[in-house]
Structures are given as structure tokens and as C-alpha cells.
Amino acid sequence: MTTHINSIDEDDFQAFVDGQLSPEACRTVMTYLAANPDESERMSEYHRLSEDLHQRFDEVLYEPLPKRLRVDTYRQNRSFAERIRSWFDIDMRSFAPRFAAIAVLMMASAGAGWWMKAGYMERQQVTPAMSFARQAASAHMLFAPDLRHPVEFGADQQDNLMLWLTERLGEQVHAPSLQDIGFVLVGGRLLPAAEQAAAQLMYENPDNRRITLYIRERWQAPLPAATEGSVSYYGEGGLSMVYWIEGPFAYALIGEMDREQLFATAKTIRQQVEVPGIAPVIEQTADTEKDAT
To answer: Do both 23 and 143 map to the same domain?
Structure first.
């Protein structure tokens, strides 16, 4: 025998959960649910929700109506002042827990408001150094794990890469040699950074562990003398970074290294990228030419 299932809509489901269907309609819905496991799981969730609501609120649903809300209260010939006093004729034993809950809720709301305000203010007070560090970290996390296209120019095109990056960043860009600490240049790429150009150089050791050197135009520090050359450390979730300002650029060295290794590697890099001083120009005169001879 074949059972014909009529069209079932959401009203039928809700009535089924609430026990409001006729026996025949209930059997129809149950047959439909047996053939549709996803809908059956949804109805189970409805049942659990209904039971939870009953457990939480049935006590309130069937509690006695407060005296101030009874009809006979308003049938009595009483003055307005007496009615006002009756509204506050509350059983304090039942009211106290509710008042405490309301107070806790208000304090929690106030605390959440202050927390959200603090978070908003923190976001508003992002410093140039923080912005630079985040850009460097994002670039590292995006390209360092890439096995197919980690760089745009490989190490075999280092000269072209340095020329290209120098043209785009507006100052001479160097690729430090890190072979003494076991890392060789993989290559590099040009990146956008807050309407500026940035460079990323990638290095790798024999264990396939990669570090990146992120280079971008320096930001204007409020106290240049205090920040020039000073190295800052940042670490989170296994990713560590040191960053500093040197000459026309800001640098960030990023990788899975401990703090001491990062500072030591940064020192090696700084020794190589430091802009050499320009020797004073000696004006040539007849006397100096004679002395030279």
C-alpha cells in the first residue's frame, strides 16, 4: 500500500512540534520526516528548543497573577493614590532575586560598553610602527608557505630584482647575504603597502625554513634620534619579528626564529645595508695638483 503525502509547509511542522496536529496529519508528517533525514534533524532541534523553553518559563507561565494586575482591583471604588500604592504592593521575597538579576545585567551591559569603547579606541590609535609590522606579517604569512610561486624574481635574477625594487622604492635596495647563518636568497617581489611600494626578500635554509625581509619607506617618527637604528621585537603564535628604521627605509625580519636569532640576524643585515658615508669633495686647485705630483 502506498501512502500519499500531501504538501507540508512550515505551519505543519510548527503544529507538529506543538502537538496541535490531528492523528492523521501527524502520521503524514512523520512519514515525510522518515523519508527526509535533514528535515527530521531540524524537527529534533525544534523539539529540544521547545522543551528547553518549557523548562525555563513554565514556572512563570503558571505563577499567580500579581494583585495589582487583577481585574477586581480596578472594579473597586478606590482613589488614584490607593491604586498607585497597590501597584507597589510587591512580595519582596520574589522581587529581590529579579532586582539582583536586573542589576547584574545592567553592570554587565556597562562593562561591555566600556570594553567595546576601549577596543574602538585601541583600533583608532594604531601607530605607524604597528601598521608597518602588520603589513610585514601579512606579507610573510601569505607568501612564505607558497611552494609554487613564493617570489616574482628568483635569486638567479638578483641584479634585475634589485634594479626593479630600487626604481619603485626610490632608494637603493640591497639583498643582504645570510649564507653565514645558513640561509640563501630565494628571490623577492614588489608589494603594495598603504599607497606605497614595499619589497619582500625571501631566504631559505637547507631545512626548507623560510624567513623574509620586508622593506618599505620609513615613517616619520616623533623622536627620530630615539628610534633611529633601535630594533623592536614582536612575537605571536609562533611567528616572530624584529623591525627597525635605518636610513631611508624601515625593515622587518620575520620568521620562525627565537628572539636571540632574530636580533643576531638583524645585526648582520644592518651591517650590510647601512648606507656608507659620503667622502667630502676636495676642490682641485693648482696647489693641490702640484702636491699630488
So the answer is: no
CA dist list (Å): 11 to 20, 52, 64: 10, 21, 32
CB distance 13 to 21 below 8 Å: no
Torsion of CA 100, 101, 106, 112, to 10 degrees: 130
CB count in 10 Å sphere of residue 37: 9
On the CB side of 105, CA atoms within 13 Å amount to 6
Alpha carbon 160 to its chain's center: 36
Same domain, 148 and 96: no
Encode pLDDT of 71-101 as tens digits: 666 556 566 666 656 655 555 555 556 556 6
Whole-model pTM: value is 0.52
In angstroms, the CA 243 to CA 137 distance is 11
Instruction: Kindly state whether residue 18 falls inside one of the protein's structural domains.
Output: yes
Pair 84, 173 in one domain: no
The enclosing domain of 238 has a CATH number of: 3.30.200.100
163 and 263 housed in the same domain: yes
Cβ atoms of residues 228 and 185 within 8 Å: no
**288 in a domain, yes or no?**
no
Give the amino acid at 39: E
- Domain of 206 in residue numbering reads as 128-273
SS3 118: helix
